[in-house]
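Give me the 3D structure for Bifunctional enzyme IspD/IspF.
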Amino acid sequence: MPTSPAAPRIAAILVAAGRGIRAGGGLPKQYRRLGGRSVLARSLALFAEHPRIDAVLAVIHADDGDLYAAAAKGVPKLVPPVAGGGTRQASGLAGLRALAPAPPDIVLIHDAARPFTSPALIDRAIDAALARGAAVPGLPVTDTVKIVDGDERVTGTPPRQTLRSVQTPQSFRFGLILQAHERAAAAGVDGLTDDGAVAEWAGNPLYVFEGEATNMKLTGPADFEAAERLFTPPLAALGDVRTGTGFDVHAVTEGDHVWLCGVRIPHERGLSGHSDADVGLHALTDAVLGAIGDGDIGAHFPPSDMRWKGASSDRFLAHAVGLVAARGGAVAHLDVTLLCEAPKIGPHREAMRARIAGIAGIGIERVGVKATTMETLGFVGRREGIAAMASATIRLPWTNPEAS
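Predicted structure for Bifunctional enzyme IspD/IspF (404 residues):
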């Protein structure tokens, strides 16, 4: 009796090695939160949960191991991530080389900053690679496009019907795209901005299949504002408005810097603590936890647990915000007041606001950072420690416990 041919082995590479500075928010854009979950976590899950995908590999920045580990937690089918290169092209090649020892038949290469890809688009990408060898999703261009020179003088108007706006995931037979990338690298060609361009440069026929208008790439702040609205319930559905407060203090010790509200500030002394001793983020974490009535930072991250020795405090605030999201809620506002004689907070205020906003996944206009001295009074006035007071306003879906 004849046997059925084996199904092709299919892998996905998610390119997530960029810094994403245009998006703002204090974190690389792939680690910013949307609806309580990071962009990368959403993108990883899209491919890992697809029944035709066998393995998912992320290409990340060498400094982002902890951020990636948090995003990847609980996601199936992942193989160990690899460090990317200095360009999009170099990162694509790094991912392909990592898969080469056990090569798949088909590989999909996707921008991690596109978290809205549908399962149907993934299916079309796989089918296109199986049929054509090299294919990219594209959309017809509806605006008239002009070609201009260095003086912005129009030099041509290509017909719209011949143009396509290209997206990811781009799909290829594995051997074809790996060979194309290796040839380009050997030739010193390193400015190609997507993998389809690499295949095209190497002389391979490249085809376009139907993309999706909703498959947006998150690039700037406006993109994140629009994306967040997709995950945020209407305010009318979040009628349970709550406020929590937090307070924290850390003693001054030897050192050459302090962490305040997620920003490293050079200073003549440091702060002592089990983690990085960031009083601002600790107070904010307690404020969020207080708003949902879920203990305090010590209950969630006990000092007796060595996992949190020297830990970055952005993890604590992100955890608390995630608990709000898990209840179907949203953070409406965060406010923190730092009490210290030094360092000066003013020069760092906007960086702090941006960092807090990025960790919490909210707009910077929803974050307040203030500072005051103690007029030389008390332990703060004597420069023996730094303290912080914080408040958090959150909105949860309204429930009536008596009706349940």
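DSSP finds twelve helices and 19 strands in the chain. Let me know if you want a second pass.
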